[in-house]
Design goal:
Blueprint lengths: L2 E4 L9 E7 L6 E2 L4 E6 L4 E5 L4 E6 L6 E3 L3 E6 L43 H4 L4 H9 L18 H11 L5 H10 L17 H15 L11 H16 L2 E9 L1 H18 L5 H15 L5 E4 L2 E4 L5 E3 L1 E3 L2 E3 L2 E2 L7 H16 L13 E5 L18 E15 L2 E15 L5 H16 L7
Parallel strand pairs: 12-16, 16-17
Antiparallel strand pairs: 1-8, 2-4, 2-7, 3-6, 4-5, 6-8, 9-18, 10-11, 12-15, 13-14, 17-18
Helix pairs in contact: 2-3, 4-5, 8-9, 8-10
Length: about 450
C-alpha cells in the first residue's frame, strides 16, 4: 500500500512550510534515509529524509508552494501503484498539529523515561531513540535542545532543527564528502540555493588545499667550475683556520674630502675616477707595511712573513668570485693603484685574467659597501692569514669632542687566522688602518 508523504511540523509554532525543492522525480527509486525534499519553515531550511522505501509515485506540490503542516504532498509505493491525482489534504494518520510523520514510525514504548534512564544527566533528558541517534550522529548535546513533543520530549525533528541552526547549510552528499576529506564546512562559502554548500564547493576546497600543500620540487644543479672551487676553498679555510673577527668604525669625513680633491687630478692623469676602494687599497697597504706581522701566510707548519704587500681584491663575477692581485701596493701611489684596480676589475668581469694575476696575494679586501651592508665576517683567502671586510659609508650620529655630530661612518671587519697571529697585533693593525682613514694625509707622505 502506498505511503503518504506529509509536510512535517518542525516546531511548535510551525503551521505552514514552503516547499523549496524535491530531490527525486516521480518514478525514482527511494531508500529509507535518502533526502527527499527541502522545506523552509518560519525559521530554517531543512532537508527531509524518506521514511519509507519504494518508488516516488506522486508529487502534489512544487517549488515555492506553501503547504500546511501534515498536508499530504506525495506518495511512495510500489511501481505503477495507483494514488490520488490530487492531494487528499491533511493526513488522517497523523496526530493533528503535534507530531510530524518523521516520528510516527518510532514506537512509543521505546521512549527513554526519567525513571528508566541511568544516573547520567544526559540520559535523564526525555527524548525518543530516533532523536538520541540523530544527536549522536551530529555530535549534538541534547541538553541544549528544546523538545517539541509531549511533556517537552525531544524528537528527531528537534535535533534536526537544532543542527540546521548550528551547522552550515549543506547537501547530504556535500556533508558526506566533507567528512571523508576532512574539510570543515564552517570555512566554506556555499554556491547552492540560498548559499547552501554543495558537492562542488567541497571539491574546490579539496583542490585548493592540495594545490597549496603540494610539494614544489626545488631547482637542483650540480656545483661545477668556479663555484665548486670556491666551495672547496672556503670550506678548507673555515675548517682549518681558527677565524677571529675584529670590527671598528672609521670616520670617513676626511677620506671623502680627499677623494673630492683628488678626483680631477687623478682623472686628468689616468682618465679614471678615483674610488673609495682605491683609497682603501692604498690605506690597507700602508697599514700592512707598518704591521708586517699581519702580512703573513701559512705553509704547512711555517709562517711566511712578506716584505712586499700584494693585495687581492674580491670581485663578484657571474656565478662566482675572483680575486685579482694588485702587487707592490707599498710602492705605488693612488693614481697607479686606481689604474691597476680598474684594470683588474675589468679583466675579472670579462674573465680575461692571466693565471699569474690571481697568484701571490698577501692580504685580501672584500668590499660590500655598494650594498646595504654595514658589517660582515669575511673568510680568509688562504694561504693568507687575514682579510678585511668593508661595509657601506653611512651618516651616523657620533660623539665628537663632547658634542653630538653626524659623520659618514664605515665599519671595518678584520678576520685573521689565530694560528698565525694573536688578537693584539691584529687589533693594532686595524687601529692603524682606522687612523689612516681618519687622517688620509698619511697616504701622501
Amino acid at each position: 500500500m502506498a505511503k503518504e508523504i506529509f509536510m512535517p511540523k518542525l516546531s511548535s509554532t510551525m503551521e505552514v512550510g514552503t516547499l523549496l525543492q524535491w530531490f527525486k522525480e516521480e518514478g525514482d527509486s527511494i531508500e529509507i534515509g535518502e533526502p527527499l525534499f527541502e522545506i523552509m519553515t518560519d525559521k530554517i531550511n531543512i532537508e527531509v529524509e524518506a521514511y519509507d522505501q519504494g518508488v516516488l509515485l506522486k508529487k502534489y506540490f512544487h517549488e515555492d508552494d506553501q503547504v500546511p503542516v501534515n498536508q499530504i504532498i506525495g506518495y511512495i509505493g510500489e511501481k505503477d501503484e495507483e494514488v490520488p491525482q490530487t492531494s487528499p489534504g491533511i493526513s488522517g494518520d497523523t496526530e493533528a498539529g503535534s507530531q510530524g510523520p518523521a516520528e510516527d514510525f518510532v514506537p512509543e514504548k521505546e521512549e527513554v523515561s526519567l525513571e528508566a534512564a541511568a544516573a547520567n544527566n544526559h540520559e535523564k533528558i526525555r527524548a525518543t531513540p530516533a532523536a538520541r541517534k540523530q544527536a549522536r550522529m551530529n555530535d549534538v548535546e541534547l541538553v541544549f535542545i528544546q523538545g517539541s513533543g509531549p511533556k517537552g520530549r525531544i524528537q528527531k525533528r528537534d535535533v534536526l532543527a537544532h543542527t540546521a541552526y548550528s551547522l552550515p547549510k549543506a547537501t547530504p552528499l556535500a556533508r558526506k564528502m566533507a567528512a571523508s576529506e576532512q574539510v570543515p564546512l564552517n570555512n566554506l562559502q556555499g554556491s547552492g540555493v540560498n548559499g547552501k554548500i554543495i558537492k562542488s564547493d567541497v571539491s574546490t576546497a579539496v583542490i585548493k588545499r592540495t594545490s597549496s600543500t603540494a610539494a614544489v620540487e626545488p631547482n637542483r644543479r650540480q656545483m661545477s667550475g668556479m663555484r665548486k672551487i670556491i666551495a672547496k676553498r672556503m670550506s678548507e679555510s673555515v675548517n682549518t683556520a681558527p677565524h677571529v673577527t675584529l670590527t671598528t668604525d672609521a670616520d670617513m669625513s676626511k677620506v671623502k674630502e680627499l677623494r673630492t680633491s683628488l678626483l680631477p687630478v687623478i682623472e686628468k692623469q689616468t682618465g679614471l675616477r678615483l674610488s673609495f676602494t682605491d683609497i682603501l687599497i692604498k690605506a690597507a697597504g700602508t697599514a700592512l707595511s707598518r704591521h708586517l706581522g699581519v702580512n703573513v701566510s701559512i705553509e704547512g707548519e711555517e709562517i711566511i712573513q712578506h716584505e712586499q704587500v700584494h693585495i687581492g681584491l674580491a670581485v663578484a663575477v657571474e656565478d662566482g668570485l675572483m680575486v685579482p692581485v694588485i702587487k707592490d701596493i707599498n710602492e705605488k701611489g693612488l693614481a697607479q693603484i686606481t689604474e691597476d684596480a680598474k684594470e683588474a676589475g675589468k679583466l675579472a668581469r670579462e674573465n680575461k685574467l692571466h693565471p699569474n694575476q690571481l697568484k701571490g696575494s698577501t692580504f685580501t679586501i672584500s668590499n660590500l659597501g655598494m650594498y646595504s651592508i654595514d658589517a660582515f665576517t669575511p673568510i680568509i683567502n688562504q694561504p693568507e692569514s687575514a682579510i678585511l671586510g668593508v661595509g657601506r659609508i653611512l651618516d651616523k650620529p657620533v660623539a665628537v669632542e663632547g658634542s653630538l655630530a653626524v659623520r659618514p661612518m664605515m665599519t671595518l671587519s678584520l678576520s685573521f687566522d689565530h694560528r698565525a697571529m694573536d688578537g693584539a697585533p691584529a687589533a693594532a693593525f686595524l687601529t692603524e688602518l682606522k687612523y689612516i682613514l681618519e687622517n688620509p694625509f698619511e697616504l701622501l707622505v
